[in-house]
Amino acid sequence: MSRPRLSIGTFGDLTTRATPSGRFEARALYRDWDGRARQVSANGDTAKAAERALKEKLAGRNLFQPASSHLTPDSPFPDLVAYWLQDIDLENRISKTTRILYERNMRTLVLPVFASLTLREIGVARCDQFIKMLAQQSYNRAKQARVVLRLALELAVRHEVLPRNPMDHVSRLHREARMPDALTTREVNAIRAVIAHWESGVDHVSGPKPDGQLGAIVEIMLGTSARIGEALAIRRCDVDVTGSTPTIRIAGTIISRNGEATFRQDHPKTAKSRRIVALPSFTAEAVRRRLAVTRDHDPDALLFQSREGTPLSTTNVRRQMRQVLERGGIAGITPHMFRRTVATAINDNASVELAAELLGHTDTKITIQHYIQRRELVNPATAELLDRAFARDEE
Length: 395
What we know:
Residues 178-387 form the Tyr recombinase domain. The protein is mainly alpha-helical. Helices cover 46% and strands 10% of the residues. The protein has helices at residues 47-59, 77-91, 96-114, 124-137, 139-158, 185-199, 213-224, 228-232, 281-293, 314-327, 335-349, 352-359, 364-370, 381-390; strands spanning 11-18, 24-31, 37-44, 239-240, 247-250, 253-255, 263-265, 275-278. A hairpin with a 6-residue loop joins strand 4 and strand 5 (247-250). The longest helix has 20 residues, at 139-158. It starts with 10 loop residues before the first strand and ends in a 5-residue tail after the last helix.
């Protein structure tokens, strides 16, 4: 009769024998994680000591064994979270900023609810209820929690700890459709006027005088569709205003993290967002003025800097813009609104494909859903077309 086959990660036929040296050797057949059975041995002063040493050796054996083998369906959820974060670090495929965001969202949104549960206790119903309850508080929080919970449980499935990912069957999040907010030409010029008045220093009382950077930042965002971080990351070498067609190369962004100095990242939000943008005259003129007053002529010098020569943080620029505009009676303006304004203008006067290209999008669906303000007025040409089709016959 054939001997039953060992399951992977188990041993059988443990035997103990005395060796010529007077010690004892324990041996067992162990089926490794590559499916092959191998003889494993260990020595001890007594037979029981040899057996204990062998069992300890087998327990720690990890030849071809998945790194997550210590996880089981009965492991607490925090153990999976710890391993998931380690796995992210080993893969090293996402940015440090995203890694920090994932850990923050997991610890602040998910762990408070799931920390006392084992992996087998985390099912579809529990996950579905969690996401729905969180969505009642905030759509964005629910979306962020959904991402990290799915990724962690997906790792458990890949390592055969769980048979399926319960997040695959959680109902979709629904958000009330919201019209992207874009500025009119009149509103843009009002913003320009308020910033210009502030930068003139007429009402300046104390503290550092305005240095003219805020107005130039706005003109660059209006002329390139750049995100605020991308605009602040522009270097002298990224600018060409001497040719017949002035251009700016969008090739980086500004990053600020807790506990770290603000720095320039060598690529935009996504690597595919790198682009060279032809400048309208108002942006080219703002760039020329900025180049004329900057003292650092190093090609890698940032176009916009603090008085200490360090990168400007997006948070500080947003705060300054808000304070300046509110002082001038304009509220509710954010840097990202200029990006939507540009997208809407290009779509209205050309096409959504051109708008998506300018914004650095690879999919026009993103441009349409989040950046283009839909006009209620239908093209009046429809009236003429319908007149041709259905005009009354003359009697």
